[in-house]
Structures are given as C-alpha cells and as structure tokens.
Amino acid sequence: MKKTNLFGLLPAVMIQILSVGLVNHVLIVPLILHTAKRDSWMCPVIAWIIAVLWVSFPVYGTMKRLNGSLKSMLERVMGRAGSWTLKFPLAVMLFGITLNTLVDTISWSKTTYLPKTPTWVISSAIILIVLYAVGTGLRTIAYASAVLLPFVLLLGDFVMTANLPHKDYSYLKPYLEHGWTPVWYGALLSVCALVELYTLVLYQHHLKKKFKWIHMFVLMTILSLLTLGPLTGAITQFGPVEAEKMRYPAFSQWRLVQIGKFIEHLDFFAIYQWISGAMIRLSLSLFLMADMLSLRSKGKKWGFAIVLLVLLVPLCQAISDNMVLYRKIMMYYFPIAGAAVVAISMIIWLLTVMDARSSDKKTSAAGMPAEGNGGPS
Q1: How far apart (Å, rounded) are the C-alpha atoms in residues 278 and 105?
Q2: pLDDT for res 367
Q3: What's the mean pLDDT in 67-92?
C-alpha cells in the first residue's frame, strides 16, 4: 500500500457513520418498531452494551495485532486456498450489504420522488455512479464522506430540533408493555446492524494509524445513538401504533417540519441524507468486495463491473415487485448475517493471535545465537 493512498482516522470514522449509520438510522428502524413496538427505544441501549463487548475483544484485538491487510494474514496462516473459507463468506456479506442497500434505496426513491421512473433506470444509474467511485479508490470515498457527513449531521440536528413541539414522551409508557421477549429480539436486530462495523477491519491497512479502543467505543456509541434517535422520534411523534406501520419512519419525521406559518415541505433534505449514506455504503462494500477478490487488472475490474450490472439490475427489479416478501426476508437476514459476522470475527481473532505468536517465535529464534549441537528439531 503506497503511503500516498493512506488516509487518517477521522475520514475512516466518517465512512462508518455514513455507511453503518444508514442501516442503523433508516433500514433497521422499521424492523425494530415492528418487533418491539412501544419499547423499541430500549433495544439500541441493550444492543450498545453487547456491541461494546464485541468491539473490545474480537474486533479491537484483531485490529491491534494485524500488520497489513486481513486478506494477506489469512493467506499466510491458512494458505491461499484455505483462506477462501473465510474470504468467501465475507464477500457474500458485502454482496448482501450492496443488495439490501440498493433495493431499499430504489424502493424509497420510487415511493417518494421518482414514482414513475422504471426500477432498472434507477438501479443502473446508481450502480454506474458507485462503480465510478469504486474505481477512484477508497481514499476518494473517504474524503467524499468527509465532505458529505457534516451536512448530513446538521440536517439531522435540524429535523430533531424542529420537531420538538410535536413530540409527546408519554407515548413511551407503559414500559415493557409486551414483556422482555420483543425487546430482546429487537436488541438482536440492533446488534446485527451494528456488527457491520466489522468492515473497518477489512480496510484498516489503508489507514495512516491504528484505531485505539476509545475510538472504537466512541464510534459504537454514535452508531447506537443513530438508532435511538429515530426510534424515540417515531414513537413520540406518531405514537407506537402508527410508527409500527411506517416503512420509512425517519423520512416521515421530515414531513412534520415547519418553519413559521409559510415554510414547510422540507422533506427534500432527506433525499440528500439518504443518497449520501447509500452512495458511501454501496461504494465501500463494492470496493471491499473487489479487494477481497484481488481484482487488480483493468480487465478483471471491468468484468467485475459487468457481472454486477447483470446480476443486480434484474435482482432489484424482481425484489422491488415483491416488497412485502422482501421485508419478511429482512427479519431473518439481519440475525443470520449478524451471527455469521460475529462467528467469523471470533475465528479471525484467534487466527491473528496465532499469527502474532508465530511471528514472535520466529523473531526470537532469529535473534538467538547459534548453538554447536543445534536445538531439538
């Protein structure tokens, strides 16, 4: 990795807030509301505690010991062929991120501001723009995040503040109306959204410095708050019954914003927020997928782009015609994908520990003076 292609920790954090923040702030919220209803706001709090433990050990432990890319470490420890037992599921995870982001973005676009535009036109346009971003490299994606995120955050603070008169916090009571079971399942969904932070491990070798534990802790806290905000906002503004029925609760909150008597219909700002997060999330997942598959030559990259177009455009068309089924699938997708990522992260953590100990032994052996009879074989 050339030093000129490296970037700092702050742009890396901004990538995660936009990428993982989209699933936490938008995609997972209706599923949690459907599951935990009035008590949905408890779910990200419980999920934060669990996720901090996960980040503290397998994630931070892996990043602390890795010298170079995860892919090279896996190939060194498991061999090139054996490493595919972990690289392949990671690539599938990245493809899943790409597909669900693209489907939800297309569905939301058609519902809100492009109702008569064909699905294949929207999907093709998004994919082509994202592929161009992937071609420019991760550093460009990082700096694009640094430009986009401040305005996304300002707009988020604006909609939260502007809607304060519409909020009734008595809707949050009574607590545990349906017991703990829905809350625990909602917390599971929230954890499964948070574990997408593991993408940070896949590109940590592109960073100038290593993340410290406190950085990971603060980042996980921010991402959890991004789930807590729209959940409490939806319940306190619309009530638990109406909030549960909404497909896009975060976007619906924009429709309540009004400045004075004459300025309203400011929900177009939500388009900027969503598209910013979606573009960074899609660009990151496709870049990491190409990196995982070792696509370096222009021919391979063009082939990868064509395959994606051929796969994703008809897939998005088929799924967009069956959104009810898609939402049911997502209720199972997140727990399965989350469990897989946690399991893979634990295995990789153990492999990095083994690799680090092996390197230490080799270093110690290289530094020992040669003995006459030689050591035991």
Answers
A1: 7
A2: 61
A3: 91
| Best CA proximity match to 287, nearest among 215, 206, 210, 346 | 206
SS (H, E, C) 282-300: HHHHHHHHHHHCCCCCHHH
For the chain, give every domain's residue range. Answer: 3-353
Across residues 63-74, what is the average pLDDT?
90
- Assign domain 3-353 to its CATH architecture: Orthogonal Bundle (1.10)
The pLDDT assigned to 233 comes to 93
DSSP states of 30-76: HHHHHHHGGGGGHHHHHHHHHHHHHIIIIIHHHHHH--S-HHHHHHH
CA distance 246 to 215: 34
Q: How confident is the model at residue 299 (pLDDT cuts 50, 70, 90)?
A: confident
Secondary structure class of 199 (helix, strand, coil): helix
Torsion of CA 125, 129, 135, 140, to 10 degrees: -170
Distances (CA, A) of 16 to 12, 199, 251, 334: 6, 8, 21, 18
On the question of pLDDT at 17 being above 90, the answer is yes
Task: Classify 287 in phi/psi space as left (phi over 0), alpha (psi -120 to 50) or beta.
Answer: alpha
Q: Cβ neighbours of residue 205 under 8 Å, at least 6 residues apart?
A: 1, 66, 68, 69, 70
Residues 337, 343, 347, 350: is their CA dihedral positive or negative? positive
Measured from the Cβ of residue 313, the count of other Cβ atoms closer than 10 Å reads 18
pLDDT band at 375 (very low <50, low <70, confident <90, very high): very low
pTM metric for this prediction: 0.91
163, 233 Cβ separation under 8 angstroms: yes
Q: Taken in order 149, 104, 270, 236, is the CA torsion positive or negative?
A: negative
In terms of pLDDT, which residue wins out, 367 or 29? 29
Question: Both tokens of residue 86?
Answer: 């972990």
pLDDT above 70: percentage of residues in the chain: 94
Gap between the Cα atoms of 170 and 164, Å rounded: 14
Q: What is the pLDDT of residue 365?
A: 65
Residues 124 and 313: beta-carbon distance below 8 Å: yes
174 Cβ partners below 8 Å, 6+ apart? 38
Residue 360 has pLDDT above 80, yes or no: no
Integer Rg of the chain from CA: 22
Cα–Cα nearest to 16, from 171, 245, 292, 207: 207
